[in-house]
Amino acid sequence: MSKFIFKDEPTDSGRQPAKKVVKYWRILIIDDDESVHQVTKLVLADSEIEGRKLKLVSVYSKKEAIELLSEDQDFCMAFVDVVMETDHAGLELVEWIRQELKNQSIRLVLRTGQAGTAPEAKVIKEFDINDYKEKTDFTSGKMVTTVYAGIRAYRDIMTIQRSLDAFKRLINATHNLLQVNQLKQFGSAALNHLLTLMDIDSSALYIARNQIDFNQETSNMIIACTGKYVSESNCLESSQIDNDVKKLISKTFERKSHYSDEGCFIGYYETATNASSVLYIEFEDDNENFRTNLAELYATNVALILEGLSNKNEIERTQKELINIVSEAVEARGKENSAHVQRVASICEIFGNKLELSQPFIDALKLAAPLHDIGKIAIPEHILQKSGELNAEEWQIMQTHAESGAHLLSKSTASISKLGARLAHYHHENWDGSGYPEGLCGEEIPLEARIMAIADVFDTLGSKRCYQEIWQDDNIKEFIASQRGKKFEPRLVDIFIEHYHEFINIRALMPDD
Ligand code: C2E
Ligand code: SIN
Ligand code: SIN
Ligand code: FE
Ligand code: FE
Questions:
Q1: Is residue 7 pLDDT above 50, yes or no?
Q2: DSSP-derived 3-state class of residue 110
Q3: pTM of the model
Q4: Which residue has the CA at smallest separation from atom 7 of ligand 2?
């Protein structure tokens, strides 16, 4: 059995997971003798197996069978006559189905009229068939038994194969799942797949509660949705989904147990770390094929991915805190207890939003901003804390904080650190080329550093420094305006002037101790 379970996945990547399964067992009869078709149909016509009728399809030669199967493989079984256009046409066909078509699932029953041409022992050994019947010996009772056995075997194979398929996709997807939107896309595809596998017409939802800190969202997150519940929203509360359904889902979270009635199944799942999720499956026709164990397979695997994501977020949170702690420690060497590093992060964020930069970039900028002065860690305290003007030599040393910060951070390959390295390196460059350490000019200066430059000066002038008093707000505004096209990029100065109060407000929100 292991042979088909672990066979390579078909490469038809365009396959639609939501393909509706036809509610028949389709059986192919391949025989050049019309009377065999008639007898088979007569015997099997009214059979119903596992709640489905049979549909018999007739072809009369190996050639016809190949033509049909090349287009349509949706058969659970085939009866194959051995002698048709040649003495071994049936055997060749079996070989073609298994080796060329690579269909390992279809159950193949070989039927022979002349036992001598294809001895049972040899054929079953050498050809990948599932049963062998001599036509004379194939009574109607035996035929029905054979079909039952074949269909059950086929059903089990498909179940295993599809479960493994779904499982593999789940596992593969964890490698590059970074964002909740990707998770939703994937989760929905897997959910569609699951419903197809369970062979039910349904709309479904998979909801996770509160376990991931994506954008500090605290609501019920829609991880997957299918059918009529397909929703743009990532949040159950704000979605268009029926209030009754929302209530049922909330109740399930509260009761922490499965619930089902004729219309729906609601599974409740928890991982080891108490992350909880709910799988809501609404039945649109019958639910007799519903398999709780497959729902469980889905929910537990998606929950594991979620857990992986929240661990990842945990790591990010830790890194963010570490950045702040280190940056504040550096800042504190200048003797002030200052929220400067946090404020410049927020000021950069405002600029990023006004410039309509991409959200991931703004998020990264916000994380990296506190690192801009990290190079001051290498500046001697007596210079850093000098209350008056710096002399020429001290000033030389002070200016090295830009390059030494870039150097410190250049050792990391993490994108936040690389961004931090650029901020450190270039945050004292001036738009007109008069800055340091490189004397870059205009757009030679990375955008993030141009933003950092104006954010840094704006916040520094409004803060207590050992070498200067706090400036009046009006004076700060006037100074920044005077540096339009000199120290600062003109369009950033314009943004600053236009939204002046938003920037000023940051200090009220994040005051120094
Ligand atoms: P910082 O304290 O973080 O200051 C950042 C930037 O704010 C300065 O970059 C400068 O562009 C602006 N800034 C700060 N104070 C004033 C001011 O009184 N007037 C004006 N027009 N701009 C001001 P800059 O000049 O490249 O200085 C880099 C760092 O060097 C400063 O970082 C500070 O740590 C140190 N520094 C600069 N001037 C002095 C000083 O006179 N005495 C001491 N002890 N340190 C100084
Ligand atoms: C972006 O936010 O899309 C990129 C910003 C930049 O570095 O130009
Ligand atoms: C540096 O500034 O030295 C490294 C940052 C970069 O430009 O990529
Ligand atoms: Fe600096
Ligand atoms: Fe600074």
A1: no
A2: strand
A3: 0.50
A4: 447
